[in-house]
Structures
1.
Amino acid sequence: MEIKVSALTKIFRSPSGEEVRALKEVDLTIPANRIFTLLGPSGCGKTTLLRCIVGLEVPDSGEIAIGDTVVWSKKQRIFIPPNKRGIGMVFQTYAIWPHMTVFDNVAYPLQVRRLPREEIRRRVRETLKFVKLEGLENRPATALSGGQQQRVALARALVSEPKVILFDEPLSNLDAKLREETRRELRRFLTELRITAVYVTHDRLEALTLSDLVAVMREGVVVEVGTPLDIYFRPKHKFVADFIGKANFIEGTVESTSEDLIRVVTPMGPIACRRAEGLTPGQRVTVCVRPEAIAIDRPGDTSGGTNTFRGRVVSLLFVGENYEGEVAVGKTILAIKTNPAFPIGEGEEVSVYIDPAQCHILME
Amino acid sequence: MRMSGLRPRISPLTFTFVLIVGCLTVGPVLMLILGSFSRGIGAFGVFTVEKYIRVYTDPSLPKILLNTAAFTVGSSLFATALALILAYLNVRTDIPLKGLFHLISITPMMIPHIVFATSWVLLLNPSNGILNLLLREVLGLKSSPFDIYSLGGMILVEGLLDLPIAYLIIAPAMASFDAALEEAAWVSGGSKFRALRRVTFPILRPAILASLALVIVRSLAAFAVPSVIGMPGRVYVLTTYIYRLISLGFMPDYGRAAAVGVSVLVTSTVLVYVYRRLTARSERYVTISARGYKPAIIGLGRWRYPLSFLTSLLFLVLIVIPVLVLLYVSLIPYVMPPSAKAFSMMTLKHWNYVLHDPLSLRALRNSVFLALVGATLGILLSTFVSYIIVRVKSAGSALLESLAFFSFSFPGLVIGIGFMWFFVRTPLYATIWALLIGYIATYLPYGIRPLTSTFIQISEDLEEASKVAGGGFLYTFRRIVVPLAIPGIVSGWILMASMFLRELSLSAVLSRPGTEVLAVQILRFADDSLWGQVSALGIVMIALSTTMVTLATLVGKHIGKSK
Amino acid sequence: MKRWVPALVGLLMCLSFVAFSHGDELLQKALQEGKVVFYANITAVEPIMEAFYEKYGVVAEYTRISTSKYLPTVLTEFGAGKLLADVLQAPVPILEILKKQGVLAPYTSPVASAYPEWTMDPDGIIQIFGIEYVGIIYNKDVISPEEAPKRYQDLTDPKWYGKIVMPNPTSHATTISWLIGLKEKVFETEDEWWDFLQGLAANEPLFVKSFGPTPGPIETGERPIGISMPKYIITHAPAPLDWARLEQPLLGTPRGIALSSVAAHPNAAKLFIDYWLSEEAMKLLVTNVGEYVLYPGVYPPIEGIKDATVLPVRTLSEEELEYWAEKFREIFGG
């Protein structure tokens, strides 16, 4: 089911009277049966938006519709409480009820609906099987490991077969290895289910690997929506580019907008960039280059070519798969990544090449 | 699916409970405040501020206020400190004889205060207190080492009497917080003691503050100890000052007493407010969540037996001996220090009298009814009220919390009159329901305190998860909130039930033929210094309370397990 | 002769019928009313309630209301039209206030004529039946009768230092009235009375809130002597209590009984007052509770009490009570 959020505003008022505008006129359409991620730094309003969708927070103005049902509208004075919205949700803390067994935790949404006992048993069994927890029905929920608890929470959210499921940073309490496994598993579950999933996280890797679509939020506003690839390689905003991964930002002026490439004059020299619409010569722009798009070579080998510069290695740090380092081209410092097999050292002169296809002009 | 309003928050619910609690507690206090501004001795009369001027220009007042401050703060610190030590040893360590410690720490709640205070006078009076005589003998002293008739003596006895309140608030909190936090502190290199000081106590802060506030409020309103121990020592506090106001003359002016009571009320309200401010960021203390629910037990190692011996000794002296004194007094024909003669004269006549006295038996029935039904209704109300106080952080919930404390904070000597002035206008007057409602209204904080500290510790996610899963407010309440709050509910029920079983201040005013209750019956004997009968009936009361407490604890455990 | 015999018989029958019918009628109506509600500040009078029921089959319900709550309770109920009591017993000062407020109705019991003249209210409303007598009580295991005081002044003897218990004279109204009674009825001069007060204060008596707790410290020996009530010798038997046989009279607040002006059971109430004032009930009161009553020839079973002079103290006004409470605070401290 599609979720449509229009002009949603939410203001928090502290007891001392201060107002915090957590959401500012947010417009967002979450397409049906996709994994949609709300990504942003803490305090950007992503969790608030999620809680507004499920009905745990009440917005101050705007409208929310799930499918054809308006679940909240200021104008029409509609509020459907969370228990009537038919949404599943996995909480950051899992919110497993410690006084119940695994079975009761998962069966709860069905018990609320007063389904026949037999059917409840069957569906709980199926769901537990789906999340690979069969056989643990009668364990006290607190006796499970973190990963298992996370799956109980997922089973509980799925058992009533909702059309929409929400995740509030569900992996943040797991250790790194388990997080990676669970992420992959979650992706599998959600792909199989064909369900609208809204996923909140501040972890860009999670967002990139899990989602069909990512919405990046900042200070109560949705900055940009796109596929993980778009967001990563073709962000429109510097904030998004910066947030989603390491990037070099080089300020410059558009010189020409000839056929295939755009030339931007920067302090480190002219850079040829990938085409972008709506640019005119003389315009101030920022060129965004990911460190992995920068190729380092012996000096002099490919001198004078397009986007080839001379630089000097300022620092190098071994991080396992590769070196992370900095190269100074004139006064501009570029973050780079190199293959550890490539023998260079700090202070050495190098040749720097940037693929024009990976030089991305930001509109901001 | 349309809703009537935009706010899904339980504002109408808050409103309903503000109304209920308001009716219960404001009515009587309002009557008293009216009385304090009226000429004459009733609730209604020509307006005057003369009573306030009279009361507050009394030259002896500053001294009395100073005594009151020392007495209440002292008792509160003493009770809370003892409760912390006991609760910690009991809940978090492997100290032996746990059941016994638990029982001992809540025993004083079951003893009528006047009996407990008298028992201590028998033990520690400077002329021939049993313990004093013993110590004089053993240490070869000329004079008695202890004088119970002093501020210190008052704090000792009042602190012990209020120990159960403190314990029943602190122990559930201690039982339900996440041991992982403590473990984290040890792991990060701190000693166990450091962990205790830097992690355990700060986490328990809401419970500790609740306990301090509640005991101060309670001892502000206490009368038994100030009259039995304070008055002979010429140490006057506000309640004995009030007593002086109402006992002087045959036209006791409760309006004037209420004028004094108003400042007690204001103090208590301020305390409640300060407590709320201090715990405003209650999220910081959220500890029951899906992870780690069972408190870890800390091994005391070689300290296990010495510590348990020391605490046993302490509590033997502080609680067991006074109770034994009670038993002893119930068996001798008149009160005398233990001697061969005393033991040779032992008799069951007080027991015979009490157990065959139809009035005492009727009082017993009424009290049991009031305790069981009253505490159950009371805890039901408290559960909703404290839930609203903790979860709905609005002006309404703050109001609700203040209201709940309203009649509780008024000195017991006076509040009964307020209830009488109030109930006499209703058809409930002179029925057992008047007592029931009065009890619940006055002692609501006993139910609310342990429950709020429990609710603060239950993560809100657990309820939200239920709402999202389709549970409505009441469904969530029944299946999630209540089962998780069982330790607090049981504590609150126990506090209320044993309070109701020995309630005196209201009953003394509202009890009529047919609605006699135990404490009034005991008072009747005590007024004539018939300590034998007082003790026998007091022991009956203790036995009843013990049975109730034990059953409640078992039921609580059973529910906790079966869910 | 034959003619006036039947006439005489008829006359006698008529007379006796009238006489009987008065009692009978009251009893019949009382039985119809079924019960009587009795508010009292006197304790332990259940045996009288039971005996009353045994005798007449009318239930007597008794609520004990302590002195400090008596007026507020009764006046509140009366003001709200819900006074439950049919008969009220209290210290005379309280009954006098109730009388002024119209709470009491006139009733002169036929039994009242047995009591001394002064016990009867000129308005026929309050009937005094006893005196809440105060005396010097001591523990006879600790103190011999020879050592015991012979006069009130003996209490100022320094040998009693730290040995006396008494109700708090700075707050307890009955005690204040009693001390003023000493001044007015016992001591020859006011100076003598002041000396007595000073001497008593110098012995640092232990203050308790009222008379009720006074026998406790005496019987345990904590304070072997005290200003207390002889009735405790009965109620606390077999505690080793005795009363000091003083040359001077004993004093106390008079106790009265009266009918409520809004009694729901007026006939049962009258029947109850008649019974209460009867020799039978008074005997129960003295034997069970040790009260001092004014029915001639009825005394509590306390040795020597028959020969004591027991006088009522007068009612002090509120202003007087406050004045003296302040004065006593200066003398006794506290």
Note: The CA atoms of residues 69 and 318 of chain C lie 16 Å apart.
2.
Amino acid sequence: MKRKDNAFFRWFFGETDTMLGRVEMRPQQEYTETASDIREVMQDSLTQDQTGDEEDFVLIRVFHRLYRVAAVFFCVALIAVLLINVSWLPKNGGADNPVNNEVSARYIESGLQETGAVNIVTGMILDYRAFDTFGESNVLFIATVTVLILLRLDKEKKAPAKKGMPVYQRPKDELTIAQAQSRDRIYEPKNNVILQVVAGFLVPILFIFGIYVILNGHLSPGGGFSGGAIIGAGLILYLNAFGFEKTERFFTEKTYKWVSFFSLTFYCLAKSYSFFTGANHLESGIPLGTPGAILSSGLILPLNICVGLVVACTMYAFYALFRKGGF
Amino acid sequence: MDIFTYILMGFLVVCAISVTFSKKLLNSILIFMSYSLVMSVIWMLLESPDLAITEAAVGAGVTSVLFFVTLKKINAMMGEDGNDEKKG
Amino acid sequence: MLGPNLFANYGEAVAIILFGIGFSNLLLQKNLIKKIIGLNIMDTAVYLYLAEKGYIDGRVAPIVTNGVQEVGAYINPVPSGLVLTGIVVSVSVTALMLSLTIRLYRRYHTLDLDEISTRLKKEGL
């Protein structure tokens, strides 16, 4: 078959990749062999000599083939069994399916009076099942802490490797933050004008939209999670366009720490108070307001703001930790 | 409206299969991004706008960005090793 | 064997198929990032299944409009709440797994899980 020579066909037949060729632009580096490289190569060849019988390889290959066959068989069997299950389920979309029982009826019928939230889903996750959402915010916080443990880089260089240290304890791969930052900027177009102008337009709009989604969480679709993710995306765009020097003026590790701490503590205390008074039939003194007004539905609005702050900070922290190993 | 849903569901399955078979990691991440976006449209059709907003912001936005950053880090480290031919 | 409602429940069927594809990705791929994408596909498949279960024909999203508060007017809000929490948790799980991947790559300079495990064995861990 005769191929036509134009960009689309070249892309279609996989001769050039329009994306990959240009994403990682970096200057050519001279290859210099360091002492640790040589040591590692020698160690590799040594261990290769020590291991590796012919018999082992055959066994491993047989195991791999068996594993693949068994995995495909298992997946097909799983899909078949579950599809048979699905075919016996009641018809999708029927009003009298057993899923639509008295629980959802209760939420719909008296949700507005009890929580004051027009959006029943928000009323459910931030009032009836508020401790569930609290646990989830804590999951986000714990995930950030774990990523921080895994990816954090030190401010200064560590002590060099000692003699008897095992391979996995040598601090060979650890960079300092400054090194990582300078290396990070090599692979990236610095001060890209197009990106900066577009970000200048988009970032305020993203922030305003995120704040709108958070504040209207009890009136319209949305809420803390989605609004927080939108604000986090805006922060990430800002960081990409203007670099770490600009964002570090208002968002550092300290900001993250205090924002998360205050949000989670306020959430915990407010909801504990509300649940305590509710369980003991006391007057909680939290006004529900008129449904539909922006200052209504009791604790849902502040809790939404707390969740939104935690989510936004978490998203930005993930990105900054991945990029630089600290923020 | 039914036909639209059929097309979107078919697109989901095609996307999920082509993630498995695409050779380059960047391509599979982009396919996964479009998968999330279509998923958010499906949630709009299933009358769950809360989920649609959250999925569009979180699934298609932040998750893909995290994947991209990981790929960039790995490619940068790969460049330092000097074995560029082992991409993907 | 097959019941009567396989084609009426096409949404659930698609969710099951996506779950299977994601699971086979998780089992068969050697590349760690593709494994993570497979796990994400499994996540969304489960969410799709839940959302399909909560859907009711001809009803609207559970946002009270014009003061109508009958059960017959809105879809089931419970699956929406469940899935909403699930989506955000899946992001943090993804971030955690990706950071583990970066650490593994920094140590072993490969994304292939088989190679990593053989090297682990060689080092006696």
Note: Confidence is low (pLDDT under 50) at residues 83-88 of chain B.
